[in-house]
Amino acid sequence: GQRAQEVKIFLEIHAVDILLISETHFTARSYIKFPHYTVYSTNHPDGTAHGGTAVIIRNRIKHHELAKYQENHIQATNVSIEIENIPAIISAVYCPPKHLITPAAYTHFFKTLGNRFIAVGDYNAKHEHWGSRLTRTDGRRLMTAVQTNNLTWLSTGEPTYWPTDRRKKPDLLDFGIVKGINIRQCTVSSCFDLAADHSAIIVTVNSHITQVKTQPAIYSRRTDWEYFRQRLEYQLDLQVPLKDEYDIERAVTSLTELIQNVAWEATPKLPIPQQTNNTPTTIKDKIAEKRRLRKRWQLTRSDLDKREYN
């Protein structure tokens, strides 16, 4: 639908490698896909359309899905990647606001992620340390778990939640909890391109992320098989003595090398695919205008600006 198209454009414009989504509202019947990406999701344990998380990861990144964390108080989708050739877990997290999560419950969740992770999402936990307007009980409990387990946090320090009710003030609810990764190699910024009551945060990890290795091939759909046949017949030497094991082994090696070399000759090299941005200029202009209107509404909170933004 419209929201999926919006996410597709967001992935393309920002060249996103991994997108973490909180509160997906997916059920067992939900299905979504994007070109060149794989989608993993965790639904609310009661199976209805609320809560839930998802990880959308670029196919070229070496990764695999891990066990889902699927409890009433925390839902998380977990994917393992390699940062600087060392495994690390990327987790999309959602904590529904109606649950008072204890420090022990937070600790249990974080321990399932191991010793190296980035867990980003809507924690619904306010604390001035990561930039919320005020500190509440939920924030104190999460901070206790963070300090107890020697964790740290990634945050923009700016509001990420923009309630439509003008009586409520914007606040910061979305941030990351990190362990075993140098946060000085990470940058965090706000992004207002998505139409939702939560603005996105973009985390850039300035480290090497292991990519999937492409398997070498001696032929492709562009191989000229007639050229291959002719060249192989011309170069093939059938007058080879096969008197002992050494002769046979040398003949096999020679034939294998000949087949490989002729196949490579007959196969034109494919160009290396480049990352392209196919979003039409008109859509980019509309996104820029929407970003401008959203920013104005966030500053004024007026009904008129809200109508223009919508």
From TrEMBL:
One of its GO terms (molecular function) is catalytic activity. Pfam families: Exo_endo_phos_2. Residues 90-202 form the Endonuclease/exonuclease/phosphatase domain. SUPFAM superfamilies: DNase I-like. InterPro entries: Endo/exonu/phosph_ase_sf, Endo/exonuclease/phosphatase. This is Endonuclease/exonuclease/phosphatase domain-containing protein.
